[in-house]
Design goal:
The structure holds 3 protein chains of 3 kinds.
Chain A lengths: L3 H15 L1 H5 L23 H21 L4 E3 L5 E3 L2 H8 L7 H8 L17
Antiparallel strand pairs in A: 1-2
Chain B lengths: L9 H27 L14 H14 L2 H10 L8 H22 L8 H4 L6 H28 L8 H24 L12 H27 L6 H32 L2 H11 L9 H18 L2 H4 L2 H26 L16 H33 L1
Chain C lengths: L2 H10 L1 H17 L5 E2 L10 E6 H11 L3 H9 L15 E4 L1 H4 L10 H5 L2 E4 L7 H5 L5 E3 L6 E3 L9 H5 L6 E2 L25 E2 L5 H4 L6 H5 L5 E5 L6 H8 L15 E4 L1
The chains are: A mainly alpha, B mainly alpha, C alpha+beta.
The complex binds iron/sulfur cluster (2 copies).
Chain lengths: 125, 385, 263
């Protein structure tokens, strides 16, 4: 009743497809990301640990604060005021998308759609 | 029960294969559209909704028409419909699926579809349309499947479906009413700004849906061992007749208001459709064809001796379906944008990829319908045997 | 992974949503007082309005084919220049009298009026149908100052607002707009849009919130564009309106347009 001729290859194909992401990356151990930090500034708009894991949440919150609620300024941990703007604040310090954003994003395989509208700084390499 | 869909003759499989190929082509074109944006369609700044939304509007009507078999059967105990309620419900399931697909393919940012739920906006009719369409899909899928399973076990359907069935009746009316409200509440689009839009939609739906159901019943009777029953078809044909008369009547009411009041905005849409406006006459042949089909339909439907003749009834149903399709699925949406708010005309002609995607969605809907009908008929045949 | 999809997964479990937002709340709770605030320089008004003085405008159009306001707006906001009229994107543009005012134009109007185009833009309606119909609040009316805003992050591209707006003020990105921007002209301080979203004039909310007049107003050398708070009896717009007869587009529709025309 059970047709081994069909089932076994079926399972094999399934396993191969299912594990595709694993073995397709084999042998290309990606180097750990090294985002380049700005030289001029020491403190970001939130502390580093928070920024590392939650910057996307913060950015989402910023965009609502700015676009929907007409806020402009953000008070950082050191009391310094920042314009809430990806293009005009974040990327002023982190002036290279390639050396900063892309480092981790490429490593983690995420493609945030920010850059489809927001213009990345000109890279001078 | 689903296994019934897996046992079929060669004709059945070739049908499925054909539909699958069409929907595959449609899907490929949709991928192209995702990549390129909606610029691969014929839509423009001025005619910002086109073929997709028009199909959607027409199909909401087909979906709503399931109520025309459910209501008489459950509320008035019209026994003749007992055998085909399931066909009506499954037709609704596939039609609503097509509606939802047409909305998705029309979005500029389909990935963001869930924003409608993340940021619910009760003042938007489109929000309500999402709610009622999804609800209707759910209701019909659950009701159809449960009742059919019970039938298979030759038991009465479980008690809890009864309330669902009763809810589904006004719900069917709601889907087409809400869809009409999409159009009927917009200032500055005179062709749509009419209080009887919802009534017109319902009337045309109750003609086009049941006529499709009649055609499907004939097809099923010919191809399978299941007979939906002459009595049911006869009753349906009466429904089609009255709905078609009402539909044409409502349209004439619109024509009267527009041309007796002579308010330019109200006339322009009709003038564009039937005579052409400012040198543009893209829709004229289609709209006259629609008139011819509708008149033929009325001639074939109103005298009982014609209507009760199966051959003529088939022709009548085809003319009803395509006549109304041209009116709603081709004319209605585009004409709302012509002339545009600047009193200028930008013509709209769908492109090949747009038509391929449209065809793909239709094919997907019919694929679902073929499978569901196969199951339903399989069960019916099994009981008889 | 696209952010949209991330959003999609978020709904998968409300708990996940809650957890991911938690750090922000915690962060906000730690500090006293708000961590964000409006710019103190921001212009304040209860309903912004604009007057377009066509007499002054036409003089300049005659003299030097003036398009200063259009150029300034479109440059500042990275509005692409798409040659195909069916797909074009415009925030502020010129339109003939009979098309701008189809409900009141007549053939015996002065030649000047019939022949010269009017400057059109979003009317930032008091009762905007585009906001009423939007299923995601991507189009919304800012409560404090009445600007009809576009949240490009949220728009799903259903184009219901385009059917709803009786003024043709909205444009849709039928494709990617970037190829139609000249790289050397791009304003690096303002985003572009992406394909599949609707856009329109935002009364330069980004400038108002920093205390600046809208770009078109600033660009017009003869002060043919006047911007101000229509609810404030002492504002310049109110003073002008009380001294001159003015026109608005399609008032019979009840949308309450806030752009006034002097001729
Ligand atoms: S002009 Fe159109 S887009 Fe602008 S607020 Fe009024 S309805 Fe909305
Ligand atoms: S296209 Fe965007 S802004 Fe317009 S109604 Fe749809 S979601 Fe709202």
């Amino acid at each position: 009743m059970y047709d081994a001729k069909k089932i076994v290859p079926g399972i094999l194909i399934f396993v191969v497809l299912f594990t595709f992401p694993l073995w397709s990356n084999m042998g290309k151990a990606a180097p750990a990301p090294k985002p380049e930090l700005p030289k001029t500034e020491k403190v970001c708009v939130m502390d580093t640990a928070y920024m590392k894991t939650e910057h996307m949440v913060l950015l989402n919150q910023w965009r609502d604060l700015v676009v929907r609620d007409a806020n402009r300024l953000w008070v950082g941990p050191d009391g310094k005021e920042h314009f809430m703007s990806l293009q005009n604040s974040c990327m002023k310090c982190h002036s290279s998308k390639v050396k900063f954003c892309d480092q981790c994003h490429n490593y983690a395989g995420v493609k945030p759609y920010c850059w489809q509208c927001h213009i990345e700084p000109k890279e001078n390499m | 029960m689903l296994e019934k869909a897996l046992k079929g003759g060669q004709k059945y499989w070739s049908l499925l294969l054909g539909l699958a190929i069409l929907s595959g082509i449609g899907f490929a074109c949709f991928m192209l559209q995702l990549n390129q944006g909606l610029r691969i369609t014929g839509m423009s700044r001025d005619v910002s909704w086109g073929f997709y939304i028009a199909q959607f509007t027409f199909l909401v009507g087909v979906a709503a028409s399931a109520v025309m078999v459910v209501l008489p059967y459950y509320l008035h105990h019209v026994k003749e419909f007992g055998r085909i309620t399931i066909l009506g419900e499954f037709l609704a399931v596939s039609a609503v699926t097509m509606c939802l697909l047409f909305i998705v393919v029309d979005l500029g940012q389909p990935m963001r579809l869930l924003n409608v739920l993340l940021h619910p906006t009760p003042n938007s009719i489109l929000f309500w349309d999402m709610v009622v369409l999804n609800g209707y899909l759910f209701l019909n899928a659950v009701i159809g499947w449960t009742v059919l399973s019970a039938e298979r076990k030759e038991m009465p359907p479980p008690k809890w479906v009864k309330p669902l069935i009763y809810v589904s009746i006004p719900w069917a009316v709601s889907i087409h009413t809400v869809t009409a409200f999409l159009y009927a509440g917009l200032p500055g689009r005179h062709f749509w700004l009419t209080a009887i839009m919802a009534a017109r939609f319902l009337a045309s739906a109750f003609a086009s849906g049941p006529s499709l159901l009649i055609l499907l019943s004939f097809l099923i009777r010919k191809r399978t061992n299941f007979d939906p029953g002459t009595a049911a078809i006869e009753k349906l044909s009466k429904i089609v007749t009255y709905a078609m008369i009402t539909s044409v009547f409502f349209l004439l009411l619109e024509v009267f208001t527009a041309f007796y009041s002579k308010i330019p905005g109200h006339m322009h849409g009709f003038i564009y459709q039937f005579a052409g406006y400012e040198g543009h006459a893209e829709l004229v042949p289609f709209m006259w064809l629609s008139v011819i089909l509708s008149v033929t339909a009325l001639i074939l439907l109103i005298p009982p001796q014609f209507r009760n003749n199966e051959k003529l009834l088939k022709i009548a149903c085809i003319t009803v379906f395509f006549g109304l399709y041209l009116e709603k699925g081709v004319g209605l949406v585009v004409t709302g944008f012509i002339p545009n708010v600047f009193d200028k005309v930008t013509p709209y002609i769908p492109t090949v990829p747009e038509l391929a995607i449209t065809l793909g969605v239709w094919a997907t809907g019919f694929l679902i319908m073929a499978i569901l009908y196969k199951v339903a008929i399989g069960v019916k045949e099994e009981i008889r045997a | 992974m696209e952010k949209d999809r991330r959003e999609f997964l978020k709904i998968g479990g409300i708990s996940v949503l809650g957890l991911s937002a938690l750090p922000v709340f915690q962060a906000l709770a730690q500090e006293k007082g708000p961590r964000y605030k409006p710019d103190p320089k921001a212009l304040k008004g209860a309903q912004w309005a604009m007057i377009v003085d066509m007499k002054k405008c036409w003089e300049q159009q005659d003299k030097r084919q003036c398009r200063d306001c259009i150029l300034a707006c479109h440059k500042i906001h990275n509005v692409p220049d798409i040659p195909d009229q069916k797909r074009e994107i415009k925030w502020i543009w010129l339109e003939e009298y009979k098309h701008a005012f189809p409900d009141q134009a007549h053939e015996y109007a002065p030649e000047k009026v019939k022949e010269n185009p009017f400057m059109l833009l979003c009317n930032h309606c008091s009762n905007p149908p585009c906001v009423r119909v939007c299923p995601t609040k991507a189009t919304f009316k800012r409560k404090p100052d009445g600007i009809v805003m576009m949240d490009f992050h949220r728009c799903i591209g259903c184009r219901y607002c385009m059917a709803g707006c009786p003024y043709g003020a909205r444009s849709f990105n039928w494709g990617d707009p970037r190829p139609y921007l000249k790289p050397e002209d791009i304003n690096m301080t303002y985003p572009t849009r992406r394909k599949g979203v609707v856009e329109k004039c935002t009364f330069c909310y980004e400038r108002i919130d920093e205390g600046l007049q809208p770009a078109c107003v600033e660009a017009c050398k003869v002060k043919a564009l006047i911007f101000g708070d229509i609810t404030n009896p002492n504002s310049e717009v109110r003073k002008i309106l009380s001294g001159h007869y003015s026109l608005r587009r399609k008032i019979e529709l009840g949308t309450g347009p806030n752009v006034y025309y002097l001729i």
